[in-house]
Amino acid sequence: MKKAIAILLIVGLVLGSMTSAAFAKKSIDTLKCVEKKPDYSTYEFKFDLPQLLLADRDAKVDVTFQTKVEGCQGYDKVNFKVDSECILTEDGNNDGQVTFAAKDSEGKNLIIINGGIWGPQGGFQLPAKYQAATNWTLNFSKAGKYNISFALIDQNGKIVANTEKKVTVKVVDGLFLFNMPQEVVEDETVDWEVSLETEQSFDNAAKLEMKIEGPAKVDLKEIGTNNWNLTNAGGYWNADIDDSYNKITKWQAVFPQNGKYTIRLRLISEEGKVLVEDSLDIDVKDDSAKGDDKDDEEDDDRNGKGKTHGLLNALYKHLAKGKINGGTLILLELLKSRGIDLEEAIEAIEKDIEKGLAGTCRDYEILGKLYKEKNREREVFINGKRAKFDVPPIVQDGRTLLPFRQIAEALGAEVKWDGNERKVIVKKENKTVELFLNKKYAKVNVEKVELDVPARIHKNRTVIPIRFLAEALDANVDYYPEGSIIVIVNKK
Questions:
Q1: pLDDT above 60: residue 57
Q2: What is the pTM of this model?
Q3: For FRET with 95, which of 85, 171, 200, 213 sits at 20 to 30 Å CA-CA?
Q4: What is the pLDDT of residue 270?
């Protein structure tokens, strides 16, 4: 008995000394941290909105979230939140909407209307020292005044960090059209044109301004009555803008060094406010690369070849800024006068997506606008190629159902129909997916998964919920509301 008690005392002393040592170490570390830092870090959002925000046109906003004052620890189970408030629209209401669009950390498209939370379910752990940037695209449905905010919230919805800005959104129906050759080579004279297309008057317009950014000094010369000579610092000329203005200015330029250049044009008021602005990015090639990238004459008219003279490129760029409006109609009329209709513009973009020359969120958003104008919807792209079905997609309870075989095979899977059990079997690598006709469940590697809608027969074809199948086969599915485009891409 005495021996047992002695052993227990020794064990107690050892455990006590270990606990004391651990506690002492933790206390020393905490004390050391507290002496120099606050308990918790503080954070901040930094973002700048474009000087000119236009209704129904996309605005690029780069948002940086970073540690402001580093503390001993960060936060657990936090998420980001975006929010907007329409204070007053130009028509006297407060019904303007703001669309926030970005890509999350997994590359999936994120679209939030007016406000919402993004981040993993249950939140994420935020370290004491942190910095990250997100490229957002904002679109305001109406002209007016808005509040825009980006915040970090904890699991209880409490704001940990927040930055808010008031913005004014305007309506300006005007755009600059650039007509630049597809291939620009260093040290060669380039003839190009620029025009301002608008259907409204700018009584307070004072000047048109042009500047060039790039790795070397560029010499510019206006070809016409004025014979202006400009360099990178740019210059300006007086503007007298009335409605239906479409004056073309012809220029010559010499780019002495290869690299990426940007030409910026702005229409500025007497008070110095920007009324219309646009830019053109140019990739100037080394003279040794001249002719290396020639395509067939039928390819890429919208890049400046052939009879369109870059008008398809102008249409593409214009649509990237917002919905179809008066400026769009001007471009469409110009294209029509050159024998190019809207369907050909659609085909040009589809071809670029299939060739891998396009395929960003913006490309699909632009395509959606054109589809909508032509009353086309529910188009499906699989790994960049537009799918063609003998049975059109159907929507049931908010879910899109498509013929299963073509989708599965395009994603690299084997498909089989089991008539006895009335089920579809899809196999890809280590995944086996089973979908049962008219049953609201499926099996993924034998594991039962509930479905919102079941597989069914439609016009003698088996149609299945597309998002479930694609994601079960390790593919990403994105949906673009305007034009109702569905984009499916295999994960890398």
A1: yes
A2: 0.43
A3: 200
A4: 78
